[in-house]
From TrEMBL:
It comes from Tricholaema leucomelas. It comes from the Eukaryota. Keywords: Endoplasmic reticulum, Hydrolase, Lipid metabolism, Membrane, Nucleus, Transmembrane, Transmembrane helix. It catalyses: (2E,6E,10E)-geranylgeranyl phosphate + H2O = (2E,6E,10E)-geranylgeraniol + phosphate; (2E)-geranyl phosphate + H2O = (2E)-geraniol + phosphate; (2E,6E)-farnesyl phosphate + H2O = (2E,6E)-farnesol + phosphate; (2E)-geranyl diphosphate + H2O = (2E)-geranyl phosphate + phosphate + H(+). Its EC number is 3.6.1.68. GO terms for molecular function: sphingosine-1-phosphate phosphatase activity. This is Polyisoprenoid diphosphate/phosphate phosphohydrolase PLPP6.
Length: 215
């Protein structure tokens, strides 16, 4: 009799009892992502499976960090005596700054915590770096890779090395335990797309004369 007099279940209870196919699929993918990322975090600590390679992975980490790229680009811009080189470097600086801002905004909105097996010994972090989605290193690697391949004349072996560098930087994020796989994959996609935005907003002496007057 109690069942017959009971009212309908609240909507949230119905959702829990009858989860949607999309919810089940997303939960399963998240579980696979966390499991695979933990298994691939072979350099997350000195006692990990590949713990001896951790120092090398941290060197690779620095090579994809924003500060060395920003400082190097700015120094090159200040020392360049070619108008064409200054235009390319100024746009690279713009791309790097845009990348930092966009990644920080997305991290602040999503607020996904870093993997539990990560050691917080990263090179120069800011407040949003406690979050992991997306991987700023992967975003930057994809952005710089496309930029360099498009605007620098390089021999084929060097072009291959640039692509390999971007892939190694991205893979190292999971190996170090800094990120989950989806953080890196989304970062690569975001960086690849961000380059198209930079190309669309390309800064030139005609479109931004005030900026070029400073140099």
């Amino acid at each position: 009799s109690s069942n017959s007099t009971a009212g309908p279940l609240p909507e949230e209870d119905c959702m829990k009892l009858n989860p949607s196919f999309l919810g089940i699929a997303l939960s399963s993918l998240l579980a696979i992502d966390l499991w695979a990322s933990k298994r691939l975090g072979v350099c997350a600590g000195e006692n990990s499976a590949w713990g001896s390679a951790r120092p090398l992975m941290k060197v690779i980490e620095v090579s994809g960090h924003g500060i060395p790229w920003l400082l190097g680009t700015f120094c090159g811009l200040c020392q360049s005596d070619s108008s064409a080189a200054r235009e390319v470097l100024l746009n690279l600086l713009f791309a790097l700054l845009l990348d930092l801002v966009l990644v920080a905004v997305v991290k602040g909105l999503v607020k996904r915590r870093r993997p539990t097996h990560n050691k917080m010994d990263m090179f120069v972090t800011i407040s949003v770096d406690k979050y992991s989605f997306p991987s700023g290193h992967a975003t930057r690697a994809a952005l710089v890779c496309r930029f360099v391949l498009r605007h620098l004349v390089l021999a084929v072996p060097l072009r291959v090395l640039v692509v390999l560098w971007a892939l190694i930087v991205s893979i190292s994020r999971v190996m170090l335990g800094r990120h989950n796989m989806t953080d890196v994959l989304f970062g690569l996609v975001l960086g690849y797309a961000l380059y198209s935005v930079v190309e669309y907003c390309w800064l030139s002496p005609l479109s931004a004369p005030a900026l070029f007057a400073l140099w």
